[in-house]
Amino acid sequence: MNKKKQEKIGKEVSVVQIGKNGISNELLTELNEQLKKKKIVKVRILKNAPYKDRSEAFSTLQKKLSNADLVKVRGRTVVVTEKK
Question: How far apart, in whole angstroms, are the C-alpha atoms of residue 51 and residue 65?
Fold first, then answer.
């Protein structure tokens, strides 16, 4: 990840949370809207999300997001950027 992206992560970043409803259409719509506005979004997997582990949730998210890249994973949080 380049220096500009790292600086942007620390400043104006939206946070989208995946909770007990999992990765729903509403969540994907909100995530896509935030990506259009901010170009970079943090996605948090809450402990009550319906997944066995975080890797299952991240792989499901990656499959459903065609216009985004998973940049960085740290614990239950992943940074998503808009594809160019």
Answer: 17
Write out the two tokens for 18: 């995946």
The DSSP element (H or E) to which 77 belongs, if any, is strand 77-82
For residue 53, the 8-state DSSP code is S
Kindly tell me if the per-residue pLDDT of 39 is higher than 90.
no
d(CA 25, CA 13): 21
pLDDT at 11: 60
Does this model's pTM top 0.90? My answer is no
